Predict the 3D structure of the following.
Amino acid sequence: MKIQLEHRLSSCPDKLRCTVCRQIFTVGRIRPLLVNDGARIQGDLCPECVSLPADEIRLILADQAWLMLEQPRLFQHQVESPETLALELFEASLEELKMPSLYQWLMKTIKSGLFVNPDEDQVTVEAIAASSQSPWHHNY
Ligand SMILES: [Zn+2]
């Protein structure tokens, strides 16, 4: 599991719900996403949670998974069943969490100021993330 830094798309709503603390937060130019080892996006992270130690984030995620199983009604807005999501979240919480480096933050911040159209960059990143093959096998 890792925290992936993405440029915020123009289509992205201003307010998002944090997957870790479940609070609504205002997203900035950079959108930190929690991605599991299977390249599946687990959700967004608020600025407070993104600065937590990796192990603490994993513990909270495991708690979230239990809460999802105990009170599935709280999570019914999701597309998938709470049981599926809970299992996926629980498995993710067992994975080692790779935090973005200061360098990655810096590069993303600089780029988000330079890009005229961040949406174009995002499409490429998502296409690579969605592909199960290595990027160099991908046909563009
Ligand atoms: Zn949070």
